[in-house]
Amino acid sequence: xxxxxxxxxxxxxxxxxxxxxxxxxxxxxxxxxxxxxxxxxxxxxxxxxxxxxxxxxxxxxxxxxxxxxxxxxxxxxxxxxxxxxxxxxxxxxxxxxxxxxxxxxxxxxxxxxxxxxxxxxxxxxxxxxxxxxxxxxxxxxxxxxxxxxxxxxxxxxxxxxxxxxxxxxxxxxxxxxxxxxxxxxxxxxxxxxxxxxxxxxxxxxxxxxxxxxxxxxxxxxxxxxxxxxxxxxxxxxxxxxxxxxxxxxxxxxxxxxxxxxxxxxxxxxxxxxxxxxxxxxxxxxxxxxxx
Length: 291
Fold this sequence. Notes:
Elements: H1 7-20, H2 31-58, H3 66-77, H4 84-96, H5 111-115, H6 128-135, H7 137-140, H8 143-149, H9 153-175, H10 180-211, H11 231-236, H12 243-248, H13 264-274, H14 286-290
Helix pairs in contact: 1-10, 2-3, 2-4, 2-10, 2-13, 4-6, 9-10
């Protein structure tokens, strides 16, 4: 059956990239926006996606208080990478069929397919209702996650995050005595750099785990899939690039297994553990050492 292009996804993909490209227009620049972009890569990419969506919700590699789990989920939602339930379902299916025909985003089809092409189509067995019922029932038992899934409320939350950047910049500039035009420019700079551009950067670094780390890198473990450890992706994603390690032991909260495999996501969880905010933290299996 030929795959049908999701025109709404394609239009959204192109539009958001075009808006992010406004960062190249000097009028939209501010150093505050740049700081928010850099900080946002950690806050949204590492805390939201790597720690929240991936290690906590998908693999239950540790336990945190319910309020903190939901904070991580909201931060992840603001990355506009699907609702928590659907993201979890897609990733669990990826592990179920890693680098096989039913893998949602394997580069066995092509690099571009793995990176973003799979996002632009929706086969019947990949529809959110089907996927979440098969792979994420535990997530949807929580009314909050069910609400985010319903009527695509997760998209509204993500857009509200972008608007909040503009509002914060605009109102803070007015409060400091700037005129309306200057305040609007400052708010727009935060909207572009801290909101939209940050979203696009986190998109592509996250998608690189699907594409790059299944094609280029080294392997610590002989897994049945093509997962690789890639140090560039590892640095850009807060530890997600140690993908072969992760596929060798998906339930572990620690992705970097060698001393040089820098894993900020794991360091964050360790800090949370010391503060009493993380418990039942899973470590790499002892059997891996023998391998």
